[in-house]
Amino acid sequence: MWTLGPAGPTPPASLMSRSVLRSRGSGARLSSSASSASDTSIGSVFEEGGAVGGAEERDPDDPDFSDGEEEEPSYLPAEIRDKKHENLSNLLLQERSSLGQLYLLNEMTRTRSSIDLNSGETAEERIEAIYLESGVRKRWMSVRYAAALLRKVVDCLAPSLTGMLVRGKEVTIGVFGYAEHVVTEPMSPKDLVKIIYDMCMPADPIEAVLQQEIIIYLADVFTSQATLFQGMLRLRIGWIIQAMKNELKDLATVEKLNLVTAERRVEQLSPHQVKQLLIYVLQDIDSRSALSTRQLHGALNRVPPLFYEKVYNILKRACGVNVRGKTLLQVPTVHEVSGQEVQFALKVEELLSSITIPEYRQVIVEMLMVVSTVLERNPEIICSSVLKLDELLEESVHLYTVDQGKKGQENGEGSKEAVEDHCAGFYALLPDGMSGSISYMAKAVVNTLLQQGLSYDISKQCCIS
């Protein structure tokens, strides 16, 4: 028996019960999807029932089956926030959408632990009924939202997390754009579930369930396709979901799929489709645009080979590196750890965690690689101050803007919108080539380092005594 409220669930029951999230046969198909990960294409994410409509021609036992799109709720959560209980009760009587009813019930129970509805049932009983009905009809968004309100838990959650931790990964729990909890060691199921619901429910209840699914699928894929996780030290579940959302937005342009299909939300996908999309997102596919690639790698926290060692070499030549107000200092860092130690890599990840935009994180990673290359090729340069990566990137964007004939403030185009347009254009540049992002970064780095470094080094060499 599940309870609603802060006390949490009783001993875990399966969120993925056969009657709700799994239809007959779906378990085998979910397992087989991992074994064929290398063959996953963006079209295959939806080829087994992802398209809207045609439900009457589909087999109800298909794991992706749905009897049609969910009816749009009359009100979104933000529109009913802080409404009086009596008003919410009246709206609930009129609401036809299952998802809309769940939004209202969530708001009604947010400040009251026990509520009896006009129908004679409790709020928890109504939510449970919607959960079961939505499971039968495969209305996945309603299933997940109701499961979150009932604080349900998927089987094998803690062991799946532990499997990734023992393979040297860190995992963070939390919704993209909000606070995260970093998990570095195995946890009991009870403690893990509490963290998931505490971190997700205030920001987006449905992610409390979706993040459980992603943890299960990540562990499964890790077992059979470990190479997909190369360059990823910290698995940020909320950011991975954001990467999946970004990928859905690109579907229409990447494969010219039906726009209605492409605009479906991750929360509306079947469990099978969620796993297939996750596998696709983890793959490094050349057909993605430069901007999409940066958004993806940034959201996945993926870095190039030898990245952490190169950052360490930068620290040996500079007083520190700074980004978004956070600084990694040369001293005592280089005296405490080596560039090959995991502890140093975690320090770098902690520095980069201050960045909240995936593509910005990725260009900062690129900037660090450029700085390292410039220092390696110019051993005479000595950087006597902290390298401010944000300023280096601003200079790179400025050089790009000038090269495009846009003088920014000099031509009266210094508005916030103009600056954002220039940044967006820079993020969309291919890295290589004479007009690639790396060329602008290299110019900015050389200009800055030569001004700070060569003058200092030459003054020492020219000193008579």
From TrEMBL:
Compartment(s) of residence: Cell membrane
UniProt entry keywords in alphabetical sequence: Calmodulin-binding, Carbohydrate metabolism, Cell membrane, Glycogen metabolism, Lipoprotein, Membrane, Prenylation
Organism of provenance: Geodia barretti
A GO molecular-function annotation: calmodulin binding
Disordered as annotated region, ranges: 1-80
The Phosphorylase b kinase regulatory subunit alpha/beta C-terminal domain, residue ranges: 233-434
Taxonomic path: Eukaryota, Metazoa, Porifera, Demospongiae, Heteroscleromorpha
Biased composition (Low complexity): 13-49
Keyword Transit peptide: no
Any one annotated GO CC term: phosphorylase kinase complex
Protein name: Phosphorylase b kinase regulatory subunit
